[in-house]
Structures are given as C-alpha cells and as structure tokens.
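User: Hi! I'm a student and our assignment asks us to look at how structure tokens line up with a sequence. Could you show me two examples?

Assistant: Happy to help. In each example below, the sequence comes first and the structure tokens follow. Example one:
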Amino acid sequence: MVGHSDFLYVADSKLCGADAMEHIRARGGRFVTVMPRTRKEDQEFRAWIQDHEPEWEKVWDRENPRRKGGPRDRWFVWKHPLPFREG
C-alpha cells in the first residue's frame, strides 16, 4: 500500500481479524487496533487490569486540533506480553 514495510496501520476493530492482521504482519507492517469485547484477550486484560498497572507508551501527543488551549490530543498504548492467538 505505501511501498515499504515500515508502516503503522491504525484502524478500528474491523482490522482485528486473523486474515487482515496476518496480511499486515507477514509484510513487516505494524498495527494498532481496537480489540472487540468478544475476544478472549479483552476478557483477560479486564481481569488483569484490576490488580496491575500497564506500562503505557505514548504514541501520539499534539495540541488540541479543535480548540486552542484545550486538552492535548494524546494516545497511549500497551503491548500485551503474550501474542494474540494469531501470533
């Protein structure tokens, strides 16, 4: 799509399917996606977070694009230490 394998694909939960994620992974790409509640990993995370503090990584930090002086637009992610069932 972009002509090289070093890219970050950001998508909603529609990406969170075996075929789509494997397609990106097999070509050296990376992705950030919202995991649907129907995934086992979501249930495991919800139980784990009750007693643990993830090591959040800031991946986006910019001024508020809609309101000058408004709260900053920041995104944080946490990488699960175990692979998804798709690897």
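Example two works the same way, sequence first and then tokens:
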Amino acid sequence: MTERAGRPKQSTGRRLLAAASLLCLAVALSACGDMGRFQTAASPPSTSPAKPTNRAVAQTPASEREHERILTSYGGAYDDPKLEALITKTVERLVAASDRPDQAYKVTILNSGAVNAFALPTGQLYVTRGLIALASDTSELSSVLSHEMAHVLAKHASIREDQARQAAVVTRVVTDMSNDPDLTALALAKTKLTMASFSRQQEFEADGIGVGISARAHFDPYGASRFLTSMERNAALKAGKTSLDPRTQDFLSSHPATPERVANAQANARQYTSPEGGERDRETYLAAIDNIVYGEDPSEGFVRGRRFLHPKLGFTFAAPDTFTLDNTAQAVIGVREGGTQAMRFDVVRVPAEQTLGDYLNSGWMEGVDKTSTEDLTINGFAAASVTAHGDAWQFKVYALRFGSDVYRFIFAAKQKTTESERNARETVNSFRRLTLDEIQAARPLRIKVITVQPGDTVESLSHRMAGVDHPAERFRVLNGLDTHAQVKPRDRVKIVVD
C-alpha cells in the first residue's frame, strides 16, 4: 500500500450492510475505508513527473491535482528510457502533422497492466504499459496517441469535465429534493444516458481526426482498426473477470468499441491510403518494448491464482478454492463463484496502545456483535475477530497485527454456513511471512521479443509463456494473429516470461 488510511468513516458500515446484491457488496467492499495501494507502507508510489514529449503543457492547479491522482491510482509513472524515446519521436511526428502544431503535449507512461489511455484538457496524455505491450507496431501506438490528441484538439476533454460537473449537480439536486427513489433513479439514468451518447459521438469524431493525423504523419492509418480489434479480443479473454479496480478498466470501458467503430476506422483509413500503405515500424517498436513489465507489478503486491503475495511487505495469504482475487487500488477483493460470498483485505491505522478487539468494536462498522469479540493468535501474530449482521449479509471480521501495521479481513456471506465460516478461518490462518526464497523469486512477468525458428508453431511458442491464462489465445492476441494465422521462420514475436 502506498498510503495507510485513518479509521474508516461511519458511513462505511452502512454501505456494507445495505448491500442488496453481490455486485453492490463487492463495490462497497472495494470502497470500504480510505485505503492506499498495497505498496511498502514507508514508501509512496513513484510520482516523479514524466519527461515531456514536446513543449511543456500549461499546468493549472486542477490539472496538477488530477495528474497526481492519476499517478497514485495507476501505480505511478513507468520509467523506461527506450519507450520514452519512442513515444517522444512518435508524438513529435503527430504534432507536426496535426492542425494545431502549436499545441503542447506531455505523455506519461503509467505503471499499470491495464490497456488504457486518456487525456486531460491541458494536453497531458496518459498511456499504460499494458496498452503498449498489447500494440504490435508504432502505427498502432500512434493511432492511440493521435486519438487522445484529437480529444484535446476537439475540446472533448473539457466538455467531459463540464458534463461531469453538470451530472454532479443533477445528482445532488435530485437527491436533495426528492424522497422518491424511482424518480431519483430515473433522473440519474437520463443524465448518464445523455453523457454516454455524447461520449460515443466524441469517440467517432476522435477516431476520424486521429486517423487523419496518423496518415499525414506517414504512419499506417489502418493501425487504428487493427488495434481496436486487438483490444476487443483482449477484452474477450477477460470475459467473466470483471475487475472492481478503476486502474484495471481497459480502454474499451471509456472508449466504446463496436464492429461499427472498427468499420468506421477502416473507412477513415481508406480515405488516405491502401491497406499496404503507410509505415508500421514494427521492428523499432518491438525493440523498444522488449523486457517491458507485463501484468501486475510485484512491488505493489500481486495475485497468482488464489494467492496474494507482497514481497516488499513480506507476507502472503491464500483465498479459498472457489474465490477469484482482484488486487484493486484500495484493497484485495475476493468473490466466490456463484455470488454468495465475498471478502476484502486491507490495512488500517490502529494506535499501538489500542487493542485489536477495541478497534473492531470502535464503531467503524454497524451491526457488530460485541459479545462475539475473540482475541486470537494467528501464526504468531496477535489478532482479534468479531461477527456483524446486516439485512442481506452476514460478516466475519478479523484484524491482525503484522509489525507496525494492522491488516483487516472482512468476509461477507449471504447466509452464515459451515462453509463460509471455514473459508474465512482458513484464509486468515494462511496469512504468513514470505520466506527469503519466495521474496527473491517474486519478480514481474515481462514481454520478451524472440525470433521464430524453423519448426516453431503458435502452440509450441505459447507453451513458453509464463504466468498467463489461455496461453495460445494470449499469444495470438499479443501478436495480432487471427484464429488461423501461423508464424513463419524469422518472424519477430512477443511472449510473456518470468
């Protein structure tokens, strides 16, 4: 975690206990408390400003605050001189080819495995290393950068800010003035629908502007349609694994992609060149991304299967067999298959002089049964537990002191059963220190660029992939290969290694 939170607010318990479905509960669990990222408690995330790729953008207090918020939310800036040099050169070409060569931009590479990019009105552009790893050549990256530049040039980013402020006003006024929940929901739904529709119009407009900029900069304008297709295929691999973490929301979450949008991007490209025209610059691109970190960064803690490991903080625990873990910006969230149980793991500040039992009964959560308080020792660590009851969910809460930190497990079940009790108990009992060997072995996954040798196939190369699910499909998506495409000797391809 980067920043340990103070005591959770009183409203946290109300949100938890009022949850009416697993999704609502999981969102509430994810939002519970004011937690920081799972990094070393003593060290904040890297928030060193990224190098400008062009002239300095005009900073405002609001943009500076938003920049810091983005860095904190997305694991800080990713420092890679090769990538920064490639992006600098690419943006300079795009700016020179745009209608506003006087507009300054600064691109920050975010240390996130998500596939995302976005822009602020000032010209600050953000692209995740996850997006960079997915792209197959410079023309695909240029399509993303020119798309985000188009949002700035068309003032979409400013309009979105205004729309967000208007939506906030509508929400506040309707909530304050109406006691009718149906009326409130209707008003908010209409507001969101208007914003969503406007957003789709913006995306199509930005696609058109962006393809034009890329084409005039002599990049292959079909890079946009190829990359939109890759993102759709990448999203399909994540089907059924909806994350609660804003950092892991992919580009498609905020930039809707449909077959119509891919077709529109292809139509835009045809205005400028044939499918064989334009520069892709694949070799240069692959050389720049070779060895880039892929997926989660172990410095913030990471999930491997059912286990969560945090090498810097030196601990690990395992979720039950039927749970899927998600390392979010605020906490580790677990959800059971079937939607009947959920869990949250986070860190809280508890004064050294306050007992863990007293903390659990201090009022941060409603419905606590104080008579259920139990002092425990778990693998040599002082701990305590309580139960709490809500209308739709039953809770078992543990607090565990590890060094100077206190970690909190919150388990929720629709019905208290022998299984739910066992799942909570076994998960907490699995909390332990990492061994030195485990800490040293906890290194990030990386992209490795290799040359295809005679006899290599998609299947044989995918078997060399480490730490990923659906390796054959993942290999195809990472390398822009469709279902039936095969590799050829001397091709340069990406694989994931540890």
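Here is something you could point out in your write-up. The CA atoms of residues 208 and 267 lie 9 Å apart.
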